[in-house]
Write a structure and sequence with these properties.
This protein is mainly alpha-helical and about 400 residues long. It contains 16 helices and no strands. The mean pLDDT is about 85.
Length: about 400
């Protein structure tokens, strides 16, 4: 295939991540699924999200390990096939959530991980001069998915206790496999002679602090401290994403399902915007300023949501979701940019996959949040959990240092 302008590949990457990111629409999907299975607890439903995030990480890791043996276009195509199989299988769910766990949790999670790694590793090669910005733009698609697909899902799948969601799942699977198959042809790596276009405004590309493989990276204290920070801040974001529909419903008891989906979708919109802004901030101000601003915004969001839950003011829920979505948008582009900046681009695919496994641990935060709600009957416990992990994250951040050049 003839090489195109690099921004064409970026647009295709956004489309792929827009589809793969539908795993974040779980908060909206679970409302219809839970209504059709009233005997399932919040903990059981939250386990689906925990599984899909865990297998998302596993898929990303597998793709990283085999990056030098398997073409990224194969991973994109395989991702579409897994989504199709996952949604078809989840659509057979009966009285037990087992098929939902395997279909949506395992297969769709793996598919999302394959697509995520293929997009991020390929685009990192095309944009060595804009690591933070391109990460933010691509991940904006991943974040906006929950809003766009969540709205469509809510519109065609009412939470009236019926099994309409089975049909919606099947249709989604078919659409995804077709679009992924077409997009896979655009996944090509730049040639050895590729250099970023030079413009008057562009500064010299900042060289990474080091260029090392995963074995050397995991021996660095900077990697582990950042990894722990990513777990904690990702946990804060995943708690909000997974419980957003319930939080909004607890305050907006008279608000329609469609409007609840819209308000929950604000998290995705602001998540997408936040990814671009935080990615650009990383390029201009570095990792310290980016991480500090992100944590401060998380705390502000949490305080607004506490006020909303205690006063019953739905407008504050809207504000809290906007701020919280923006905060969560800062985590993923920082993961991508910091791995490239700290540890180089030669082994980026595998190194990025390793840091991304932080979600394997962080994903359990949604299950913990479900248990806290089952025990307390209030989502205030969820918000206090967000504050707690963010405060611990700030303590860990104090020890992170950019490695000395090697």
């Amino acid at each position: 295939m003839k090489k195109l302008n690099r921004w064409v590949y970026a647009i295709v990457g956004v489309i792929v991540l827009l589809l793969a990111g539908l795993v974040y629409a779980w908060s909206v999907m679970s409302k219809s699924i839970g209504a059709s299975r009233p005997d399932w607890t919040a903990t059981q439903l939250s386990m689906t999200f925990t599984l899909v995030m865990a297998f998302f990480c596993i898929g990303c890791l597998i793709a990283g390990i085999l990056a030098k043996k398997v073409s990224p276009k194969i991973y994109v195509l395989l991702s579409g096939v897994l989504f199709l199989a996952g949604f078809l299988l989840a659509g057979t769910t009966g009285a037990s959530p087992a098929m939902l766990y395997v279909g949506f949790g395992v297969l769709c999670g793996l598919g999302a991980g394959f697509a995520y790694n293929a997009v991020m590793s390929t685009m990192s090669m095309w944009f060595p001069d804009k690591q933070g910005l391109i990460s933010g733009i691509l991940l904006m698609g991943f974040g906006l998915s929950a809003f766009i697909i969540g709205k469509v899902f809510a519109a065609v799948t009412p939470s009236d206790g019926s099994d309409t969601w089975h049909t919606t799942f099947r249709v989604l699977g078919i659409i995804i496999v077709v679009v992924m198959a077409v997009c896979s042809f655009f996944f090509v790596k730049p040639g050895a002679d590729f250099t970023p276009p030079v413009t008057a405004k562009r500064k010299e590309v900042r060289e990474p602090a080091s260029d090392i493989n995963s074995g050397a990276m995991v021996k660095k204290a900077s990697f582990w401290l950042y990894y722990i920070w990513a777990i904690l801040i990702s946990a804060a974001g995943l708690v909000l994403v997974s419980q957003a529909s319930g939080i909004a419903t607890q305050v907006g008891t008279q608000v329609s399902d469609g409007n609840i989906a819209t308000v929950v979708g604000l998290i995705s919109i602001c998540n997408g915007i936040g990814r671009v802004i935080f990615g650009g901030l990383f390029d201009k101000k570095g990792y310290k300023m980016t991480m500090i601003v992100d944590m401060v915004v998380f705390i502000i969001a949490s305080l607004v949501l506490i006020l909303a839950l205690t006063t019953g003011n739905f407008a504050l829920i809207v504000i809290g979701f906007i701020v919280g979505g923006f905060a969560y948008g800062g985590v993923t582009p920082t993961n991508s940019a910091i791995i490239s900046d700290f540890f180089g681009r030669t082994n980026y695919s595998m190194n990025f996959s390793l840091v991304n496994t932080n979600l394997l641990i962080a994903s359990f935060a949604s299950t913990i949040a479900g248990r806290l709600y089952d025990a307390s009957g209030s989502y205030l416990s969820t918000i206090f959990m967000m504050i707690g992990v963010t405060v611990v994250g700030f303590v860990v951040f104090l020890g992170i240092r950019r490695p000395k050049p090697e």
